[in-house]
Amino acid sequence: MQYFTTDTHFGHPLVTVLRGFTTFDPNGLTYRDILHVHGRKAAEDWARQTTLDSGLTFREAADTDAHDQAVIDNINASVGPDDELWILGDIGFRTSLNHLKACLRELRCRHLHGVIGNHDNWWIDDRPARNLFETLEANGSATIAGLGAVNLSHFPYREDLAYGWPDDVAKYSGKALPFDGRRLLYGHTHQLSPDGARPESVNVGLDAWNLHPVSESQIIAWFNDRPTAHGMDGNASPSPVSLDMPTF
Fold first, then answer.
1. Angstrom distance (rounded) from CA 240 to CA 221
2. Tell me, what's the pLDDT at 195?
3. What letter does residue 88 receive in the DSSP assignment?
4. Backbone angles phi, psi at 179, to 5 degrees
5. Cβ atoms 196, 166 nearer than 8 A
């Protein structure tokens, strides 16, 4: 089985706080209460504002060890040793190289593939870190039964970058893939819904899937439940959707 995820952000204090792993709410009870009643955006806003109001830095407020272990445990609970796991970028940030490698070594999957995100350039020149991956590329592709070849990228399609943060077009047009009619699995936006900006794309980020990886069976079901627009011109505008994104 193939599995896909992205934006693990091992060791990253800000993402850790927004996902509810904090020193001021050590069991995450308040965060989860807000999450269940008001949704993830409200829970993220509460965690951010509580950090700022407390006078703590995000590093002081973040329980990165608990965050990273939760991500690792969720992956290991789904992905078997002989399965393939794709992590589509932003694997770790604002942490040590040793910590990043320790987290990756805890993943029991022996067939680990990586796509490079905008927060990965600081570690990819380290050979021991690179050697933990069978493949590590700027962009990739995978074959999924019934769907054929799908594109894998950290970013949405180039034509859809404007649906993310306002400066993404200027920053990442040279890294994002142009729309070619294929389906796309991506991350980067930290959106809270898997919906892509066009029907050919799905966000497989942890924030959109309750901090769990996504199996190829889930990908097949996702696309089969949604109409596609194959043959859409690469310059055509996709139908607008709400990405429900946090503001980093």
1. 22
2. 94
3. -
4. -65, 130
5. no
Buried b (16+ CB within 10 A) or exposed e, 92-128: bbbbeeeebbebbeebebebbbbbbbebbeebeeeee
Tens digits of residue pLDDT in 89-121: 999 999 999 999 999 999 999 999 999 999 999
Judge contact between 119 and 88, C-beta under 8 A.
Answer: no
Alpha helices in the chain (DSSP H): 13-18, 29-38, 40-54, 58-61, 64-78, 97-106, 127-130, 168-172, 216-224
Q: Are strands 135-137 and 111-115 parallel, antiparallel or unpaired?
A: parallel
**Rounded distance, CA 163 to CA 197, Å?**
7
Cβ atoms of 161 and 120 within 8 Å: the answer is no
Distance of alpha carbon 236 from alpha carbon 159, whole angstroms = 8
**Are 204 and 180 a contacting pair, CB within 8 Å?**
no
Burial-class residue 143 by CB neighbours within 10 Å (0-12, 13-18, 19+): exposed
140-159, pLDDT tens digit by residue?
999 999 999 999 999 999 99
3-state SS assignment for residue 116? coil
Beta carbons of 156 and 191 less than 8 angstroms apart: no
Structure pTM? 0.90
Separation between Cα atoms, residue 6 and residue 241, nearest integer Å: 21
Could you give the CA distance from residue 57 to residue 183 in angstroms, rounded to a whole number?
40
> What's the sign of the alpha-carbon dihedral 38, 41, 45, 47?
positive
The HSE-up count of residue 222 (CA atoms within 13 Å, CB side) is 22
- Cβ contact 182:198 at 8 Å: no
